[in-house]
Amino acid sequence: MNPNIETNPLLERLPKHLKQFIKPQDYSDYTPINQAVWRYVMRKNVNYLSKVAHHSYLDGLKKTGIEIDAIPSMYGMNRILTEIGWAAVAVDGFIPPNAFMEFQAYNVLVIASDIRQLEHIEYTPAPDIIHEGAGHAPIIANPEYAEYLRRFGEIGCKAISSHKDYQMYEAIRLLSILKEAEDTSQEKIEEAEKAVADLQNNMGELSEMAQIRNLHWWTVEYGLIGTVENPKIYGAGLLSSIGESAHCMTDNVKKIPYDISAANQNFDITQLQPQLYVTPTFSHLSLILEEFANKMALRTGGLSGIQKLIQSNALGTIELSTGLQISGVFTNVIEEEGKPVYIQTTGKTALSYREKELVGHGTLTHPHGFGSPIGKLKGFNLAIEDMSPKDLQAYSIVESETVKLEFEGNIVVEGEIITGSRNLHGEIILISFKNCTVTHGETILFQPEWGNYDMAIGKKVVSAFSGPADVNSFDLVNIVPASKTIKAKHTDERDDLEALYSTVRNIRDNKDSKSELQSVFEKLKNYHPNDWLLAVEITELLKDSDEKQLLQEVLDYLEQLKEKRPEVAHLILGGLDLIFHKEAV
C-alpha cells in the first residue's frame, strides 16, 4: 500500500512546528503477526461493541474506511476522512499534549502508527494504531462529536502548563515505550513507574494543561454516554481495548455523571480505571468544555494569567484590551492592588495583533525581552487607548514631543515620542520612544542606552495563553520528545513464526488450498509452542473444511495451551467463540 500521507488538503494547512511530529507510515513494516493482532482485536471489538458502544461507532467504521481484516493505511484513511472534513497523520508514540490538541484544532487525527505486540493484545499504555485508528477515527464520523473534538483541541492547545507537566509527559512516554517493548527488564519498568509515581505525588496545584488533560482522558479516551444505569462506550481507550471495554461495563467500575469536577480527577495510564464518567449527550461535553474554558487564563487574563505564564517558564502570550499581543517567556510582573502594572519578558519576544506579527516587532527587534506598563495614567479617568486625537494632543502624547507619563502603580515613562501604531479600530496600541527612561520607584526598568523603547498600550490584560500569538514569530521546530519507540527485534525464531503467519494469511486472503495447514501446524507445535493466535487462525480456516481430524488436533492443542498458559486462556476462548458462535460482524 502507498504510505504517502500527503493526500488530504487539510494537511497543507498545518504549520511547520506540527509537521515535525509527522512520520511516514511505512506499511511494509507491518508483519503478518501485526496483521493478525489487528484482525483479532477488530473482530472481537466489532462483535462485542455492537452491543455496548454508541451507535456512531459501527457507522463510523464504514464511513472512515477502517477494515476489520487489515491494518489501515494513511493513504486510504486520508482519502476517506476528507469526505467528513478530517485528516490523519502518523506519529511516533505520545507527542506533547499541546501539539496533540493543536492537531485536533486543525481537524487532524493523530495516529501512532506502531501496533501493540501480541503479548499486549488486550491493552497497551502506549498509543498505537489500534487505539487511534480503531478507537478515535470511527467516532469522529459523528458531526456533533467531531466538533467537540475540534473545539477541545482549539481550547486545549492554549492551556498553560506548569514546568512539571513536560517532565510528566516525558516520564509517561518513556514508561509506555518500555512497557510495550519486548525484553524490557522488570527493573527498568519499575524504575520508570517510580518516576511517574514520584511526579504524580509532587505535581502541586494542577495546571490548566493538567486539568484539561484530565477532561480529555475522561471523555475522548475513556468516556461513556447515556445514563449511569445504561451507559454506552464512545471513548477511544475503551473502544480499542478488548479487556477494558468488557471490564468497564461491570459493577466493578463506578459510573459517575460527567461534570466539570472531572478536571481534578487524575488517572493512571497503566491501570484499569476504577471509575468512569457518563455524559448524557455529546452536546453536554461541549457545555462542560465551555464551562472550563471560562475559568482559563485564555478568557480571564489578569494578574493570575500572567502569573501562570511566569510559573510555566515557557513561551506564552498575553493580550491587552487594545488587542495587542505580547509573546515571549514572561519572567516578572509588578502588581498594585491585585492588578498588573508592569510586565516583563526575557529573551526573544514578538508583538502581534489578531495573531499576526506587527511589522518591525518580531524577535529580531526584541531579542532580549520586552517590558511595558499596563493600565491607566495616574489621575486620569480616560485610558490612553480611549483618547481621541484631540485628547492625545492635549496631553502632548504626539510625535516629537518629550513627555513624562505617570502610570498607576508608580510606573513612570519619560522620553521623546517617535511614533505610534493603531489597530483597525483606530485605537493606539503601541508608542515608540527615544531617549527614554522607565522607572518603578527607585528601580530603573529601562534606560536610554538600551536603544528605543516600545511601550504597549492597554488598560488591562484580557487573555493569557500558552504558545505564541503568531506561530511564525518563533522557531518552534525541533521541539521533539527525548525518547524513541523501540521496535520489535528480528530473530530467526521470530522470522520463522512470521513466515507461518504469512502462509495462513495467504490461504485466507487468496482462497488458496488448505493443504499446507497440516505442515504449518506441525511447525507451530514443534518450534513455537507458546504461540496461541496462529492456532486460532488455523482453526477458523479448518472449521468448514473436510479436515475434521486436523481441526480436532488443533482444538486439542489449544486446550493444552489454555492449561499451560492460563493467562491467555480467555483470549483463546474469545477467538473460538468468534469462530463457532460468532454473530454477524
Automatic annotation (TrEMBL):
Task: For this UniProt record, give its keywords in alphabetical order, as a comma-separated list.
Answer: Coiled coil, Iron, Metal-binding, Monooxygenase, Oxidoreductase
Name the needed cofactors.
Fe(2+)
Q: Which GO terms describe its molecular function?
A: oxidoreductase activity
Ranges in coiled-coil conformation? 175-209
EC number, as in UniProt = 1.14.16.-
PROSITE patterns from the xrefs? BH4_AAA_HYDROXYL_2
> Residue ranges of the Biopterin-dependent aromatic amino acid hydroxylase family profile domain?
1-342
Cross-referenced InterPro entries, in alphabetical order? ArAA_hydroxylase (IPR001273), ArAA_hydroxylase_sf (IPR036951), Aro-AA_hydroxylase_C_sf (IPR036329), Aromatic-AA_hydroxylase_C (IPR019774), MIX (IPR040571)
CDD domains in alphabetical order: arom_aa_hydroxylase
Q: Which family does it belong to?
A: Belongs to the biopterin-dependent aromatic amino acid hydroxylase family.
PANTHER family reported in the protein's UniProt record: AROMATIC AMINO ACID HYDROXYLASE, PHENYLALANINE-4-HYDROXYLASE
What name appears for this protein in its UniProt entry?
Aromatic amino acid hydroxylase
Q: Which organism is it from?
A: Flavobacterium gyeonganense
